[in-house]
Automatic annotation (TrEMBL):
The keyword Cell membrane applies. It holds the Pfam family MotA_ExbB. Its main location: membrane. GO terms for cellular component: plasma membrane. It comes from the Bacteria. Residues 74-186 form the MotA/TolQ/ExbB proton channel domain. It is a multi-pass membrane protein. This is MotA/TolQ/ExbB proton channel domain-containing protein. It comes from Candidatus Schekmanbacteria bacterium RBG_13_48_7. Belongs to the exbB/tolQ family. InterPro entries: ExbB/TolQ_transport, MotA_ExbB_proton_chnl. One of its GO terms (biological process) is protein import. It is found in: Cell membrane; Membrane.
Length: 201
């Protein structure tokens, strides 16, 4: 069964022409990047930032499970060890979180952008082959012809959209999640520096 599916995939790629391989590679790279970002963008404890800060300040020592947990724990440790220039130390330490949660975001955008263009390139190539067949009157050639040109045009367009559309939707969801985490990281710095966590419920 698996061998049959593999053969079908290879046939599909072969029918689409040279543009199919970049699209197939882009698919694997895109979903690797998306999977990595899903893993990295875990928030952790669902409690509010203010409550988390208060709990860690009071000696809560449970291992962090996400970005916000880890950031709060590190911020509390820095606050206990540092007197002056606390915000500067936090900014420096949190830059690692910002770099990590930004990872592969540009790659996802680039693949989503170029996948339809690669598909369009395959479409143009298929149309050229189709018109060449019309000129040479090789309508039913086994190695080419109109059918081959149409197959190239449609398969590459289809795969380009299949790569781009889900990637764009999931990418937007992850970007929104990333934006929320960045705001919460800023909130952690503000709470730690102002000492307002004492008012947490």
């Amino acid at each position: 069964m698996l061998e049959g599916i593999f053969d079908e995939v290879i046939y599909y790629i072969h029918q689409g022409g040279f543009a199919m391989w970049p699209l197939v590679i882009s698919t694997f790279v895109l979903w690797y990047a998306i999977g990595y970002r899903f893993y990295i963008l875990r928030r952790g404890n669902p409690r509010s930032v203010r409550i988390l800060v208060k709990r860690y300040m009071s000696g809560y020592d449970r291992n962090p499970t996400g970005v916000i947990d880890t950031a709060v724990l590190r911020a509390v440790r820095i606050a206990k060890q540092t007197g002056e220039h606390l915000r500067a130390f936090l900014e420096d330490d949190f830059s690692q979180f910002i770099e990590e949660i930004n990872k592969y975001s540009i790659l996802v955008r680039i693949i989503v952008l170029i996948a339809p263009l690669i598909g369009l390139l395959g479409t143009v190539n298929g149309m050229i082959e189709m018109f060449d067949s019309l000129a040479e009157q090789t309508f039913y050639s086994q190695s080419g012809g109109i059918a081959r040109g149409i197959a190239k045009a449609l398969f590459t367009t289809q795969l380009g959209l299949v790569v781009a559309v889900p990637g764009m939707i999931v990418g937007r969801i992850l970007e929104k999640k990333q934006y929320t985490l960045v705001r919460e990281l800023d909130q952690i710095k503000d709470i730690i520096c102002s000492g307002t966590f004492e008012d947490a419920i």
